[in-house]
Design goal:
elongated; disordered N terminus; alpha+beta; 5-stranded mixed β-barrel
Length: 138
């Protein structure tokens, strides 16, 4: 137990950023937290907008990892839907009129750009321009 009251403990952003402290943080963090941090850092390093900061009708360039890819018809038209995650929030990416796209598969990293729409409280990017990230960088 710590002698420091909870209210006086340092917040994550207030912690000293020494090498030893970072190593302890990494050892005590869950694998999911580490992956989220990595994705967020990668997004910022590539000059892309964080998905959590995207607003309705904003033109954005985002990057992340595809979590799921499904074929789901919309209004009788085939639509390939994928969930892109950058460590901060999910984004639904939808290609209308497509049953499949070579290289679009779960676990693949990509950069997508277009105009964000809000649908049922979720961010959606319809028919984005996209660039598959090289497999060597994964």
């Amino acid at each position: 137990m710590s002698a420091v009251p909870r209210s006086e403990k340092l917040h994550k952003g207030d912690r000293p950023s020494g090498r030893f402290r970072r190593m302890l943080d990494r050892l005590s963090s869950s694998q999911e937290d580490l992956e989220c941090e990595e994705l967020e850092e990668d997004s910022q390093a590539s000059g892309c907008t964080l998905i959590s900061e995207c607003t309705d009708r904003q033109i954005v360039k985002v990057t992340g990892t595809l979590r799921t890819v499904t074929l789901r018809p919309r209004a009788g038209v085939p639509a390939l839907e994928a969930e892109l995650f950058d460590g901060t929030a999910p984004l639904d990416v939808v290609w209308l009129g497509r049953r499949s796209i070579q290289g679009i598969e779960p676990g693949r990293k990509l950069i997508a750009s277009g105009r964000i729409a809000m649908s049922h409280g979720r961010r959606v990017l319809f028919n984005p321009k996209y660039e598959l990230r090289p497999l060597g960088k994964e």
